[in-house]
Specification:
InterPro entries: Pept_S8_subtilisin_bacteroid, Peptidase_S8/S53_dom, Peptidase_S8/S53_dom_sf, Peptidase_S8/S53_subtilisin, Peptidase_S8_Asp-AS, Peptidase_S8_His-AS, Peptidase_S8_Ser-AS, Peptidase_S8_subtilisin-rel. Helices cover 35% and strands 11% of the residues. By secondary structure, the chain is an alpha/beta fold. It folds into two domains: 359 residues, Peptidase S8/S53 domain (Rossmann fold); 124 residues, no CATH class. It has a seven-stranded parallel sheet with strand order 5-6-4-7-8-9-10, with helices on both faces.
């Protein structure tokens, strides 16, 4: 395979920044349009490490992490704190326990706010959710709050000052009713599938004398009745989704459990999950709440945050599990995302907590489409910008064009177009195969609202209980970029958060390959038009630019 070589370095580009006047030297964008498409499937080893691969050498759209460590990174940079605002993190995980941030100014478990930062015994971060695990969606909370006031009324019956609120309520109510009904119908279908598969599996297992049989063994099974043929057809179809029927049943039962939780909690219009916390979630000045249990009351509920933390900073080269992107960071855990929509107050205070306690990069792998107090979060993002802190944010998993759709929160755009801060990177998700399906089918996109793309499908990382799993989403793409940002801040501390953002956006790998957007084969667009940069994050190129600019 012919390797594409970077052209000569270009002219110097001075980026405006209130915090730094260090110039950045631009390098030409690498274009991989002439690369052959990879047709062979990844093996297990490649699958677990595909985000580290180099697209020119491997035709795998990774971030060239391994190449960067092999060819550029020497010695140890300065330690950087990365805050993970999420569902909690298993800080005792074998691959994370050595990279968890410790507040050296706090004496553990003495019940005193030793460092006077407003949080008692915040040794490894703070839990703004207390004992909350389940929560409603924001749209459900809006319907619950305003149903008595607006139910049954029309727009012309509403005072002018409340018309926008009424429109929000009406749209929220419509979505809650429609989505909950669709979810109930889908769950009924899944229940029927499970019943049919279990019945067929029992019959076939008895005939074969074992429960764990292969697709080949199933195909070789003789059928003498219509029921035999039916059972064989059902199981054959299910084996398209998993390698065995027991694995399929585990998978579909997990989905059923998720659906049940959504119906019972996310769309619950009578819930009061916040009561256990004891604060007023509508009062941003009511800050005396939460606790220091950053794992949360249910370790399993910290699965998402633990996975995110591992992507960023799982201990490298320790011979176990997997390697995080960054080798010299500490993870500050800020628990603020329940199994439902986050509260604006929690996110605003979580960002401020991270900033005030030394984080230089914040990962925010969450989002929603309704917000009751987005200004609190906007102000927190501006505060982070003023304090030179970079925020890396997941673009969302609805497969939509954010430039033409509803506003997603959090974001750095007041009018869905003009940025009010220069310290936030919005990240879409890449698939593991270079070609027409390069963009993950679920990934949001947008020439204005999404900045860049990074690996987000089949990402192998840490989960609670010293375990590891493949998960996917823009939630996984965001920490990939947060890891790159942390490494740049570690080795090139002279550059501001705004400059680190520009380095990452400018040095990504570009391509004009035609891809399916939103998973729709009819919606074909040039990859370069799906984000502001039109690029895939590349750690090697980012380090080359930072290295050249630091001389």
């Amino acid at each position: 395979m012919k390797k594409i070589v970077l052209a000569a370095f270009g002219a110097a580009l001075l980026l405006s920044s209130c915090d730094s006047t260090a110039p950045l030297i631009s390098i030409p964008a690498e274009n991989v349009d002439q690369l052959p498409l990879k047709v062979s499937e990844l093996n297990e080893t490649q699958e677990k490490a595909w985000p580290t691969k180099d697209i020119t050498a491997d035709t795998i759209p990774g971030m060239s992490v391994a190449k960067t460590y092999d060819e550029i990174i020497k010695g140890t940079g300065s330690s950087v704190i990365v805050a993970v605002i999420d569902s909690g993190v298993d800080i005792e995980h074998e691959d994370l326990d050595g990279v968890i941030w410790t507040n050296e100014d706090e004496i553990p478990n003495n019940g005193i706010d030793d460092d006077k930062n407003g949080y008692i015994d915040d040794v490894h971060g703070w839990n703004f959710l207390g004992d909350v695990v389940n929560e409603q969606l924001e749209k459900s909370r809006i319907v619950q709050k305003y149903d008595a006031q607006f139910k049954g009324k029309t727009l012309d019956q509403i005072p002018a000052a409340q018309k926008e609120l009424f429109k929000t309520y009406t749209e929220a109510k419509k979505q809650v009713e429609t989505e909950k009904d669709e979810l109930i119908q889908q769950k009924m279908q899944y229940d029927q599938i499970v019943a049919a598969v279990k019945s067929a599996h029992t019959a076939v297992s008895q005939k074969l004398g074992k429960e764990d049989y292969t697709a080949e063994e199933l195909q070789a099974l003789e059928t003498t009745t219509e029921m035999d043929q039916r059972n064989k057809a059902i199981l054959t179809q299910m084996l398209n989704y998993e390698d065995s029927i027991p694995e399929f049943l585990v998978m579909i039962n997990e989905q059923l459990e998720s659906m049940t939780n959504q119906i019972n909690h996310n769309y619950n219009l009578e819930g009061n999950y916040r009561a256990v916390v004891g604060d007023d979630p509508d009062d941003i000045k009511d800050t005396d709440y939460g606790n220091n249990n950053v794992i949360g009351p249910d370790p399993d509920a910290a699965r998402h945050g633990t996975h995110v933390a591992g992507i960023i900073a799982a201990e490298r080269n320790n011979g176990i599990g997997m390697d995080g992107v960054a080798n010299n960071v500490k993870i500050m855990v800020v628990r603020a995302v329940p199994d439902g929509d986050e509260r604006d107050k929690d996110i605003a205070l979580a960002i401020r907590y991270a900033v005030d306690n030394g984080a230089k990069v914040i990962n925010t792998s969450f989002g929603k489409y309704f917000a009751t107090n987005p200004e609190w979060v906007y102000d927190a993002i501006k505060y982070a910008a003023k304090k030179d802190v970079l925020i890396v944010n997941a673009a969302g998993n609805e497969g939509i064009d954010l430039d033409t759709g509803d506003t997603v929160y959090p974001n750095d755009q007041l009018d869905n177009e003009t940025e009010f801060a220069d310290n936030l990177i919005s990240v879409g998700a890449l698939n593991e195969t270079y070609g027409g399906k390069l963009v993950a089918s679920f990934s949001n996109y947008g020439k204005s609202n999404v900045d860049v793309f990074a690996p987000g499908v089949q990402i192998y990382s840490t989960v609670p209980g010293n375990e590891y799993e493949f998960l996917q989403g823009t939630s996984m793409a965001s920490p990939e970029v947060a890891g790159v940002a942390a490494m740049l801040r570690s080795y090139f501390p002279q550059f501001s958060a705004a400059q680190i953002k520009q380095i990452i956006l400018q040095t990504g790998v570009s391509t004009n390959i035609q891809v399916s957007a939103g998973g729709d084969p009819e919606n074909v667009k040039s990859f370069s038009q799906l984000s502001k940069s039109g690029k895939m994050v590349n750690m090697y190129n980012a380090f080359k630019m930072a290295e050249l600019s630091s001389k």
